[in-house]
Structures are given as C-alpha cells and as structure tokens.
Sequence to fold (339 residues):
Amino acid sequence: MTAIRQALPTYGTDLIPTLDRAYFDDCLVFCAPEAWELVKHEFHFPPKQVAVPKSMEQSRLERQIQRVAQCETVFGIGGGSACDAAKMFAWKTGAKLILVPSILSADAPFTKSIGVRVDHRVRYVGEVFPEHLLVDFELLRKAPPNLNRAGIGDILSIYTALFDWRLAHEQTAEAYDPDIAAQSQTLLDQLFAGADAIRENTEEGLALLSELYVGEVRLCEQFGNSRPEEGSEHYFGYCIEALTKRHFIHGELIAMAVVLTAMSQEQPLQPVLDFLAAIDLDFRPAQVGVTIDDIHDTLLALPQYLEEETQLPYGIYHHLGMAENRVDGLMTKFAEPAC
Fold:
C-alpha cells in the first residue's frame, strides 16, 4: 500500500518557541487579533506582518495574499479560516507552513486541501502540508470551551455519513469498503467514549479530538475521498451557508445537521442526543446562529442544490427529495422536546 502523507501533530505547551529560529527570520502570520494577543510573546522576532483573513471567498483571499508581505514562512494561528488562509499562502507562494490551531472546531489544520468559498459555496482546492502542526494544550484551553467541543462535528458526522455510504452502495452500486467503514465506526465509538474529557476540555480530551481528526483524515486518504466521514449532514451545512451567505461555527452547525439528517435517515437518535448532552454542546438553532425559517428553507432548497453540486455523492437527501410535506414533518419532529 502506498504510504499516506498527512499532517501529524506535535503535542505540548509553549510550542512555538521550540521551533528553529530560522522560521522567524522572514515570516508572516495569518491570525485573528484575539489569538495573536495570546501568542505574540512566543515569537523570537516580530513577524513582517500579522494579517487577519478578511474573507474565505477564493478570489478575495487570493487578492489579499498578493498584497501582504511575501515571506519564506507563514504561520496560521487560530481557527479554520486562519489555518486555511495560511495554507493558501503556502500553496500559492511555496512558503514553509506552520499551523497552530487555537481552537479545534474543525479539521482544517489536519487536511491537505484548502477550504474556500466560491460565491458562498464551499470548494476545496490545492494540496499543501505543514512543516509543523502544533497542538498547544495551554493555548487551546484559553479558548471558550464550546469552540473546542464543537470539534466533535467532523467526527460525529460519521454517524450519518456511513448510513449514506451504505445507501449509495445499495442504490447506485457506488464502491464501498467495509473495512474502512468499520475503522470509521471505531473513531465514532472512541468519540462517544471520550465525552467526559471533551466536556471538561482536558488535555486528554483535546488530544483525543486531534487524534480522531488524524484518523479520519487518514481513512479518507486511504479510500480516496471523504466518504468515511462526510455525507448529507455536510451537504445541509454547505447549502445553508450558500443560502444565508453567513459563516458559522462549523462543528455546531454540523452537530445540528447530524440530528436533522439522522431523523431523515430514520436512524436511532438517542445515542447522538445523549452524547451532545454529555459534552454540553448546544446545537439548537439560536446557538448555531440560524432561524427555524433558515432550516426550513434550506431543506426545501436541498434538491436543487444537489442537482447543481454534482460532485457530492449520493445520500439521503438525494434519495428522499425534500417536498414541502416531508420538510414540515421533519421540522415538527425537530421541534419536539427531546431535541
């Protein structure tokens, strides 16, 4: 089997000063102002520039990259936007890349592709790997705990993604790998078992989320696409972003979408609800930043969206369609007290 190249984290505290000083000689930092205040004392020398990602629209991000200081090393410090902006800079310029997530709300620091938007629609471009991926427990624990708990989204999605994968295999004869699917299920089981550590934001919980990201990315690389982790729950997330033209905390949005999608799949919902309660992650619309009308409109828009986004593999929303009566029934169920 061909060896898989991927970003592997270094764990610890105060990790930036342990890097070779040459990285600091000619560097640029993509970072939100709040995150920069937390790490600036760790830099051996001031960077040429600290750039705040202004937009993840690909054209705007590329223009920003053309205007910032050109450097030999780029740091991405923060959440998914800062890391993806730094990845784009490294891909476009050939700069050395160092990623330091300050929250674990999405798997962006662990993936080789760069998540951007084209007309508010998610696209993945490029291929770039960091020279260092630093998972600094002290830095992560300075963030609001819910932003790290939201990191469960891209692992919890396995619950609905595996259902979609099996459905596609049955309905369209899409290739299915039972061994990879079983390994993906194991990651989900590990997530559920680590609920206490994730809720408490301990080093054990933060390391667990990171290692689950590593495992999830490896399985997707082995299979050749994101089937082991991504399904209709992500399609809902992509669609609501395109429809509302708003940006959300990825993990919170995907957690809500898993609940909605599991309902559509008629999967047992209690294991998901119990886990979300155990880690104290609020997936209600108000917390996510959407309205009931946003959800309703997105469900109705999904069939047309999926016709246009032909790169998205077959899933439950392709299979069922989303007629008005089906959407109304799903919304009634979503409003029940258990949710």
Remarks:
- The CA atoms of residues 156 and 329 lie 24 Å apart.
